[in-house]
Specification:
CATH architecture: Alpha-Beta Barrel
Structural class: alpha/beta
Radius of gyration: 17 Å
Number of domains: 1
Helix content: 40-55%
């Protein structure tokens, strides 16, 4: 698989609690240089990234992160603030406790309301697969589809496990045709990236992906921005 094809699918990510502005600036410059899909950054850095880089890149951020058990009102306020500060894409974490309580309808309503707040901005729904049964994953595919979200996303990267090709394939089979898939968490090699894409992932959340591909991209000449 061509490195340029892979890098266009990467949300170049820096979400560690010790992430500094120097880290964020480096992330953004790499994203612009190599043509990643977006940068995924903490909400506190959105406004500064927008001011510094303008429309040179897409800004993704996280809502209800990483545990998801904030109230809906808090998540809506986070979403509104992120968009006002310049975010293009929102990655929200569902309330996993609601799933475990069997209240998928409540989860669906929350996603619906956050998508309404997003408007034309992309919404990705993090379901944290490591905590779910296969039936819960299928139920959430239906909820994400019904709620009108743009993506279903496997993981935060802060749970007990990350993306697996089998979960991506399960999503591919059960998700609606208008919903795409983002694989994230534990994607540490080029082989991992290829495996997720081949399984059906349209986006990859990774802090390491660009570094793994950088030498190959540098040696291939100019980046295509198409």
């Amino acid at each position: 698989m061509d490195a340029k094809e892979i890098v266009r699918k990467i949300d170049h990510t820096a979400l560690k609690p010790v992430t500094t502005w120097e880290d964020i600036e480096k992330l953004c410059r790499e994203a612009i240089s190599y043509g990643t899909a977006s940068v995924c950054i903490p909400p506190s850095y959105i406004a500064r990234v927008k001011e510094t880089f303008g429309d040179e890149l897409k800004i993704c951020t996280v809502i209800g992160f990483p545990l998801g058990y904030n109230t809906k009102a808090v998540k809506l306020a986070e979403t509104r603030d992120a968009i006002e500060n310049g975010a293009d894409e929102i990655d929200m974490v569902i309330n996993i406790g609601d799933v475990k309580n069997g209240d998928i309808a409540k989860v669906e309503r929350e996603i619906t309301d956050i998508k309404h707040e997003c408007g034309n901005h992309v919404l990705k729904v993090i379901v944290e697969t490591c905590y779910l049964t296969d039936q819960e994953k299928k139920d959430l595919c239906r909820a994400v589809t019904n709620a009108g979200a743009d993506y279903i996303k496997t993981s935060t990267g802060f749970g007990t496990g990350g993306a697996t090709a089998s979960d991506v394939m399960l999503f591919k089979y059960h998700i609606g045709s208008a919903v795409k898939i983002k694989a994230a968490g534990g994607i540490n090699t080029r082989e991992d990236m290829e495996k997720m894409i081949e399984a059906g992932a349209d986006r990859l959340g990774s802090s390491r992906g660009v570094g793994l591909l950088a030498e190959e991209l540098d040696n291939s000449g100019s980046i295509s921005w198409e």
